[in-house]
Amino acid sequence: MDGTVNDTLRPVRGEVYRWLAGVFAREPTAGTLATYRSPEARGILLDLAGMEPLREGAAGFLTLLNDDTDLEALAFELAGTYARLFLGAGGPAAVSPYESVHTSPQHRLFQQATTDMERLLAEHGLSVAGAPEPADHIAVELEFLALLAASGAAALERRLLDEHLLRWAPAFCAACIERDPGGYYAAAARVLRGMLEMEAA
Amino acid sequence: MTKLFEKDFQPFVSRRSFLEGALIAGAGLLAGPSLLARGAMAAQPSALAMSGCHWGAFRARVENGRFVEAIPYEKDLFPSPQLPGVLDAVYSPTRIKYPMVRAGYLKDGPKSDTAKRGADEFVRVSWEQALDLVAKELQRVSKEHGPTGIYAGSYGWKSVGKLHNCQNLMRRMLNLNGSYCSSAGDYSTGASQVVMPHVVGRLEVYEQQTAWPVVVEHSKLVVIWGADPVTTNQIGWIVPDHGGYAGLKALKEKGTRVVCIDPVRTATAEYLNAEWIAPKPQTDVAIMLGIAHTLVAEKLHDQSFLDDYTVGFDKFLPYLMGETDKTPKTAEWAAGISGLDAELIKRLARDFARNRTMLMSGWSMQRMHHGEQAHWMLITLASMLGQIGLPGGGFGLSYHYANGGAPSADSPVLPGITDGSKAGGAAWLATGGAVVIPVARVADMLLNPGKAIDFNGAKVTYPDVKLCYWVGGNPFAHHQDRNRLVKAWRKLETVIVHDFQWTATCRHADIVLPATTTFERDDVEQVGDYAMKAIIGLHKVIDPVFEARDDYEIFREIAKRLGKEKEFTEGRSQLDWIRSFYDAALQQAKAKNQKMPPFEDFWKGDSVVEFDVPKEAAEYVRYKSFRDEPLLEPLGTPSGKIEIYSKNIEKMGYDDCGPHPRWMEPVEWMGGPSKDKYPLHVTTSHPNLRLHSQLAGTVLRDKYAVAGREPCLVNPKDAEARGIRTGDVVRVFNDRGQILAGAVVTDTIRPGVVRVNEGGWYDPAEPGKPGTLCKYGDVNALTVDVPTSKLAQGNCGHTAVAQLEKYAEAAPAVTAFGPPKSA
User: Fold this and answer.
1) Where in chain B is the domain with CATH 3.40.228.10?
2) B633-673: pLDDT as tens digits
3) Chain region(s) in chain B for CATH 3.40.50.740
4) Which of B496, B592, B630, B790 has its CA 20 to 30 A from that of B86?
């Protein structure tokens, strides 16, 4: 890892994780997609694309969300992709967004990783809300990581990375990149992969 | 408690760009939805709760709100090794999480491009949106197409429980919307359950057998013909008692002589150390005729039994002896058809006649073309042996199913939710609905609206169905000729399915609603289809996962949108219903002076009530009362006797089912005209570690999959000729379809036969495209979708010939089960 890039990225890593958490939390609306077109968002994406580990992923968003895109149609398409990848609808091409499925011996939902994440969140006065999702959903782990990064809780952050995210998220990213032909989730996965490579280094 | 998070964290808020120094404005510009909130989750319960399923009764161990272990009920002495798979299914990555609508259907509704079914994407919708969509569509179809626009013949192994009987609940809701097209019969005993009432005046296939202790004490020879009770008694339509295993064990310990007639040396043959006789599949009737001919030729048949208890042997005999068709059905003739040795067939005839012989038949022999003949001929043979109604003699058609022969307790009958119609009747012969089609003709119906078919002496005209509502079943597993079904399915404007996991049927639907499993809701059930040993509470052990809802609540919500909620619920809550079923049983128990605790005590206590097995139940001999008093206890046939010749069937005048049993070549078989192109018979037995397709997507698959696929048993001779070794990926194919499977080279299967168990999940290489390769091994891609005959219109799931080859190309990954490749 380039020391300069590393130094530049570190301060904003929480913000990147919070953004990715939202991307994986649920299907985007046309409104969400429209925000990517704002000069501010473009600025952010351009900034991110300027750093080698995130270049391909961030550029992917810029390409997908150019001014000609019919955002309603894209949102509908992405809802289908989201369901196929993350809601099980496309069994043939699914990518489980749950740590348990990746790390439990029998590849089940709601296993030890879920319990561990629930406890970890509870220890910090947090719980999952807004959707009936288990605590080891990629979006929950990333949102928690973002909170920790923003709060400067470095030791906890390290624990969440080492005991959870780094154990399975790289495989999750690889599967998204392989199975998302449309590119939106592949782009997000590329950004996440770049971030995690930095964390692992 | 940490004070880390005093404010909500919003990224990219009014901060300086780290590269350019420009100010970025906007609150949480790219934040997206949040899944975290302040406030720790409440502590989750730990408990041990009574529950049960098709694989047995168990206590569910719950830790911190998670179902972590299914501990077999301590009085189940033979728990099924499939039980851990249940837990795996509950927490399967293939759970349906939210209500889903196919993308094309969400855009275009019933006018969508239905060729996209199976290939199209799905989109999440809210429950409100999904339920509104379903209710409006049901009303539209009923209004525009009348009472036969909706197909509600929904069939399959729904989960256990007297309340959450999703098929009854669906028809209960649909009866409030008008009427529908329903189905009769099932895929298990389609042919036999229609012909048996003509022969013995009863269903026969779903009735108690001569009790196992009687068989063990009296039978000198037990013949297990086309059945594998060691494998199939693991499961029950209700919660199984597994009492059949006590019988099998006692038989083994006594060392009774057992003969297994089956193209495969089954687990049962292995367990009982049986003599294994392996004929060509689908030739059972010819073998029985050869045995019958030998009995007559050697004067071993019991003429006085035939005279006293049967009618029509005199009309059957000329056929048997070849006087009517110049073909005597000799042992040599039978040997030519079956591939067995003529001397062996004669020896069987002599052994059957000279010993107290119990002929135990499975249902495979009737689940093939002309399947009506098999059990009819078996009963004719048993009549000639004259041992029907004697202890340990005669025949039995349910020793392999639901633990038939396990002695029956004196138990009250627990009622369940009804479809609300006045018709009622037995579930397997439902008569509700505006039109009733034979269940296995569903694809034929879709492809040929308006066509009239024969059915047991009546005519049925196929309706022009527009909407199909399927619950508690998976026709994309159990129906024959998958590619024909894929094509037929396109004809439907709307397909609605409830399930708890993404089955192939869900993938080929338009609206998919996530249902809870038995373990996410309360219910009550009996233990032992025949044994009736206990009533148990099925407790909700975990909260519904994701947005899954109970079938009852889904249909209640739809009924509400039809303005009929009150009619649907009758003002009762779920627990009110459960209590009402229990109380009905309690009333019966009181009348019999049996002890049953009040509901509250039952429900809050151990939730098990056991019933005693009376001494006479262990001594039960089927047809004893008929044998003892043929005039006072007549059979339900027109003559009151066993009808070897049926005048009622004669009157129907069918060319494919005559008035007495006879050998007719199946549409395809090892001796048929296609034998050069497709020399192998494909036998499609029930699997050992699944219930049909249920639990295919679980950890149990690791115990049997070969090269990640459904195993295909191949005889060494057939394997060698094709250069196939154990572990190879093979392609099994015919003109109807093609599947990949994993080869197991073994001499436990007859040469010329391969076995691929039914129920492997359909995994099309190109979804929605007829003829595409199934990558996992759904054997129904190869079977024929023709009726057994005009009489029963049953399915022919055991009729298929094919060719086999080593798969030369790089085998595509199996994807039916959906775990991530990286996992």
Assistant:
1) 206-409
2) 999 999 999 999 999 999 999 999 999 999 999 999 999 99
3) 100-178+412-610
4) B496
Q: B501 to chain A: nearest residue by CA?
A: A88
Taking 70 as the threshold, does the pLDDT of residue B820 lie above it?
no
Number of Cβ within 10 Å of residue B44's Cβ equals 14
Domain at B673-806: CATH code: 2.40.40.20
What letters, b where the CB count within 10 A reaches 16 and e where it falls short, cover B119-138? ebbbbbbebeebbebbbebb
pLDDT confidence of residue B5: 53
Number of Cβ within a 10 Å radius of residue B74: 11
Average pLDDT score over residue span B481-508: 97
Residues of A in contact with B818 (CB under 8 A): 88, 90-92, 94
Is there a catalytic annotation at residue B603?
A: no
Among residues B157, B245, B309, B577, which one is catalytic? B157
CATH code of residue A115: 1.10.3480.10
- Of the pLDDT bands very low, low, confident and very high (cuts 50, 70, 90), residue B12 is low
pLDDT at B22: 36
Torsion of CA A56, A58, A59, A61, to 10 degrees: 130
User: Confidence band (pLDDT; 50, 70, 90) for B15?
Assistant: very low
Mean model confidence pLDDT for chain B: 94
Q: Cβ(B274)–Cβ(B224) under 8 Å? A: yes
Say what the pLDDT of residue A44 is.
Answer: 86
How far apart (Å, rounded) are the C-alpha atoms in residues B41 and B718? 61
Neighbours of B144 (CB within 10 A): 11
Average pLDDT across chain A, whole number:
91
The ipTM estimated for the assembled molecules is: 0.95
What number of other Cβ atoms are within 10 A of residue B789's Cβ? Answer: 24
Distance from C-alpha of B253 to C-alpha of A86, rounded to nearest angstrom: 53
Of B32, B816, B821, the CB nearest to A91: B816
**Weakest-pLDDT range from A91-95, A179-183, B506-510:** A91-95
Interface of A with B in 52-81 (CB under 8 A): 76-77, 79-81
Which DSSP string corresponds to B69-83? EEEE-TT-SS--TTH
State yes or no: is B663 an active-site residue. Answer: no
The structural domain count of chain A equals 1
Boundaries of domain holding A188: 3-200
The residue in chain A having the minimum alpha-carbon distance to the alpha carbon of residue B92 is A108
Parts of chain B belonging to CATH 2.40.40.20: 673-806
From residue B357, give the alpha-carbon distance in Å to each of B224, B267, B382, B573, B728. 11, 21, 9, 52, 42
* CA of B154 vs chain A CAs: smallest distance (Å): 22
* Domain B206-409 part of CATH 3.20.20.150: no
Kind and range of the H or E element at B159? Answer: none
Cα separation, B492 vs B410, in Å, equals 47
Does residue A27 belong to the interface with chain B, where contact is any CB pair within 8 Å?
yes
A98 near B CB under 8 A? yes
- Of the ranges B478-487, B691-700, B810-819, the best mean pLDDT one: B478-487
pLDDT exceeds 80 at position A91: no
pLDDT digits (tens, 9 = 90+) for A43-67: 888 888 988 889 999 999 988 887 7
Between the CA of residue B506 and those of B100, B137, B477, what are the distances in Å?
Answer: 10, 18, 11
Percent of chain B with pLDDT over 70: 94
Give the CB-side neighbour count of residue B402, counting CA atoms within 13 A.
24
Question: Among 3.30.565.10, 3.40.50.740, 1.10.645.10, 2.60.40.10, what is the CATH number of B100-178+412-610?
Answer: 3.40.50.740
- Which chain A residues are closer than 8 Å to B823 by Cβ? 96, 101-102, 107, 171
Q: How far is B726 from chain A (nearest CA, A)?
A: 26
CA angle A147, A152, A155 (to 5 degrees): 95
